[in-house]
Amino acid sequence: MMIESPERAISRFLKAEKGMVMAQSLAKVYVHIVFSTKNRVPFLADRDLGRELHRYLGGAFNGVGCQSIIVGGYIDHVHMLGVLGRSKSIAEVVGRVKSSSSGWTKMRSQALRKFGWQNGYGIFSVSQSHLDRVRKYIANQEAHHARVSFQDEVRDFLKKYQIAYDERFVWD
């Protein structure tokens, strides 16, 4: 019995594969994104504006190749749950969504001309088995923040996800 050389084995394999299409890249990464207004100014205390902005944020997220599941928040911050696009970086997605929505909000009225988002953000992975829990959490932000401040909420996330941070650089 003759042993086949590696070159011949590769050549045989490649010939057998001719006509077959390379498998596509597939991914489904659920993310929970959190960011606040600049200096946590309560621009979103107007419930109508908050709801419109949440809808806009969901559309902007979809517009950069992602899939929005729910957007909600409270008077000074937002939570977004969705599927991260396969070909987009986290920084690109969040940057474009924040930039677009900030511009949209500033155009709404003279009173919102100073609107802005904080520079940073938090993004956390979500297991498919926890989607309903996170969806409910985002939907119940008003009740949640009757008990917990935004800063404590973020600290809890950072602790839960074991993310080291320096308190001096988290808030702006």
Report what the structure shows.
There is one protein chain. By secondary structure, this protein is α+β, with helices and mostly antiparallel strands. The chain has one domain (29-169): Transposase IS200-like (Alpha-Beta Plaits), CATH 3.30.70. The protein has six helices and four strands. It has helices at 6-17, 47-63, 90-106, 131-139, 141-144, 150-160, and strands spanning 29-36, 67-74, 77-84, 122-126. The protein has a four-stranded antiparallel sheet, with helices on both faces. A hairpin with a 2-residue loop joins strand 2 and strand 3. Helix 2 packs across helix 3. It starts with 5 loop residues before the first helix and ends in a 12-residue tail after the last helix. The model has no long low-confidence stretch (mean pLDDT 91).
Task: Tell me the overall shape.
Answer: elongated
Tally of contiguous helical segments: 6
Mean of all residue-level pLDDT scores: 91
CATH architecture field? 2-Layer Sandwich
CATH superfamily: Transposase IS200-like
The N- and C-terminal alpha carbons lie at a distance of: 73 Å
> Which consecutive residue ranges, at least 5 long each, have pLDDT under 50?
none
Strand portion? 15-25%
DSSP summary, beta strand count: 4
Radius of gyration: 22 Å
Indicate the structural class. Answer: alpha+beta
Order of helices and strands: HEHEEHEHHH
Helix content: 40-55%
The main β sheet shows up as: 4 strands, antiparallel
With strands numbered from the N-terminus, the spatial order across the biggest sheet is 2-3-1-4
What is the third-level CATH name, the topology? Alpha-Beta Plaits
Count up the domains: 1
The CATH class is Alpha Beta
